Amino acid sequence: MKKVELLAPAGNYKALKGAISAGADAVYLGGDRYGARAYADNFSQAEICEGLHYAHVFGRRVYLTVNTLVKERELDGLYDFINPLYQEGLDGVIVQDLGALCFIRNHFPDLPLHASTQMTLTGAWGTEMLKKEGITRVVPARELSLEEIKHIKETTKVEVEAFIHGAMCYCYSGQCLFSSILGGRSGNRGRCAQPCRLPYQIEKEPECYPLSMRDMCTLNLIPELIDAGIDSFKIEGRMKRPEYAAGVSAIYRKYIDLYYESPEEYQIDPKDMELLNSLYLRSNTGSGYYHTRNGKELLTLHSPSYTETSAELLKSIEEKYLTDKLSLKTNAKVTMEAGKAATITLKCGRVSVTCTGQTVQQALKQPLSEDKIISQIKKSGNSLLEISEVELETTGNIFMPIGAINELRRTASECMEAAIIKSNGPSCQSRRALPEVPIPHSGRAKSKEVSDPKPVRALHVLVQTRPQLFSALSQEVDRIYLDYGLFAELGADVLWELLDKHKMLSGEAQEIYIAAPYVSRWPQEKYLKEIRLAAANGLVHGVLVRNLESLGFFEKYLSREQLVLDTGLYAWNRESIRFFSAKAAELYLPVECNGAEWKTLLHFEEETLSRSVLVYGRLPMMITAGCLEKTKGTCAARPGFTMLKDRYGKMFPVYHDCHSCYNVIYNSVPLSLHKLLGDWAKEPLCCRLDFTTEGEEETCPIKEYFKEH
Questions:
Q1: d(CA 503, CA 539)
Q2: Alpha helices in 37-93 (DSSP H)
Q3: What count of Cα atoms within 13 Å lies in the side-chain half-sphere of residue 303?
Q4: Pairing of strands 5-9, 232-235
């Protein structure tokens, strides 16, 4: 029976060794680039290679995090960053950026690819789509229930890695712009400033911490999670101390093994739970979303601070897992005979190696004693082997320089470690044959010659309310995106009559698209089916897709020409543009990129994929499973807006979507790129205006202004 993998964080080399010593089956770590923990110690390339060797000697695995969005100018650097690690036997890479996924898959074909939780995978449709792109393991969104995770596993047969311990984000990972837009520190680039840990007011309620999640602790759920078929249990915490990685790993190792050995006797010692709760966890802990959709029981409403960790506990963990050197016991057989080369055979379990050294000399004065030879052979030096027993065969009075004996031992130890690594699984021989191929430059940006100084631009609008829809229908806009919640409210029949009446009165033939949910989960799949039916029957022209789960679904049932990708399906480089061009006809550029980066993305030679820009609207700062209405105890299961006030008095509208049960926290002020459009007079752009809280009287002048510019 294959056991679940225990996966621990390693913020530095000491944490890696401590986690392995404490029983972790694998560690995940970041290098000095491309990782979602920019402020962790992180590893140099040399340290990662050293860590790979260390882990592989003890039969453990190492996964590299490349879990940030990768800008075009950074993409080619991935080759030199990963290549030495690939050759050293890197066990897998955790990716967020779809362009990085394609790049790594194409250049490092034997490297397992894991989809980061930053991809916001929420179901089997998105997982199956990525499986076809080479993904072998997914880390689903932490907001999923255990039943949803089981559904992904059973439907796709892809390995599933799930979080079991540590800090939790309030926002769906990969869908948070809060820190980026307000403070310039992007969570998608590993620099989150954690605005969710600050105090806010919900409406006129007393100030509290409504966005601060309790830390996760699932020791009591281990039997359920194992029985659900999860392949890897992940501990969060690369920013935390080595004592945390080692101490938490040790406790989970104990209870995972206990359940496999005696399921009926599984019981948690209160002392172990007390220890876990005192190791860099917040004052309140919970078991996450496995059995809870949302609610204040998931939050640290009154304080997001950590509990104090005692110096005595840290010292005991240090002494047990971080001080003592981990080693493999090995036996040695040494043969020395004058006139012949010395030989040594090392044996560890079923693995053995034999090495030869210098020729043994006849002793002229002082022969080597057996005790001296054995003591030199037993010295470990920097080796990960402990030669505990030595069988020595000598003939007559012999002599050999001490340096030569040490060299023989070192050579044998290195060969033995390599043989152990090979027996444990990782083999780098085929990887070393990988040529350093030149990076292809096809598809790079090329400037376009545009003769018209002011080309005609298409104007699109997105509406959430009936007044906004009526206003859009009455004005000259080229396309209307109808929020799926409004579509659900109107119904297909009412919408059909409304659009038919509008065409009869105005003669207009505006394009109508439905904006699909920001988050699509298995229990709410009915909305995707209703949208598909509306598009297939010709009620609407197509769909604005906002997540990978929806893309996987609609890709199967609708034509490529009917799909438009929203800003949250990130395209930051040529490879991601190329990936999406095979799946959709149009894509909105990411809002975190600057104007120069937008121009680069606009000019990639993928003519089949139109690129458009969002030029007005409140940006969705967070898409959350948490619900502020539920938190304050006023949930009426009716969609609408709640206001969130920060410590500076800024008001953030929060839309509670009660169809798919998520919240959208919008920025306090709308984005407006009217100046940029003036600077880009020669760019034939499709521009979109997003309306959220605006009334009909506000939408008209905004549309008129952007039409003129």
A1: 13
A2: 45-57, 72-75, 77-87
A3: 7
A4: parallel
39: pLDDT confidence band, cut at 50, 70 and 90?
Answer: low
Please name which of 635, 659, 654, 634 lies closest in space to residue 644, comparing C-alpha atoms.
654
Residue 316's contacts (CB-CB under 8 Å, 6 or more residues apart) are none
Residue owning tokens 């030595």: 390
For residue 138, give the nearest of 167, 163, 103 by alpha carbon.
163
Per-residue model confidence (pLDDT) at position 57? 95
- What tokens appear for 21 in the block? 């010593």
Distance, CA of 470 to CA of 473 (rounded, Å)? 5
Model confidence band, residue 35 (pLDDT cutoffs 50, 70, 90):
low
Give dist(CA 419, CA 57) in Å, integer. 9
Q: Exposed, middle or buried by CB within 10 Å (0-12, 13-18, 19+), for 582?
A: exposed
Distance of CA 99 to the CA centre of its chain: 14
Q: CB neighbours (10 Å) of residue 559?
A: 12
- Token reading at 352: 């053995």
Q: Which residues contact 435 (CB under 8 A, 6 or more apart)?
A: none
Chain centroid offset of residue 95 CA: 6
Give the other-Cβ count within 10 Å of 137's Cβ.
19
| pLDDT (average), residues 237-254 | 95
Contacts of 206 (CB under 8 A, 6+ apart): none
SS3 541: coil
SS3 annotation, 174-200: CCCCHHHHHHCCCHHHCCCCCHHHCCE
List strand residue ranges (DSSP E) for 464-602, in order: 479-483, 511-515, 542-545, 563-565, 586-588
Query: Which candidate, 411, 377, 407, 406, places its Cα nearest to that of 391?
Result: 377
Q: Name the pTM for this structure.
A: 0.93
CA–CA distance from 438 to each of 45, 77, 107, 374 (Å)? Answer: 21, 12, 10, 52
Percent of the chain surpassing pLDDT 90:
80
SS3 (DSSP) at 528: helix
pLDDT in tens, 502-526: 876 666 678 999 999 999 999 999 9
Tokens of 260: 């496999």
3-state SS assignment for residue 695: coil
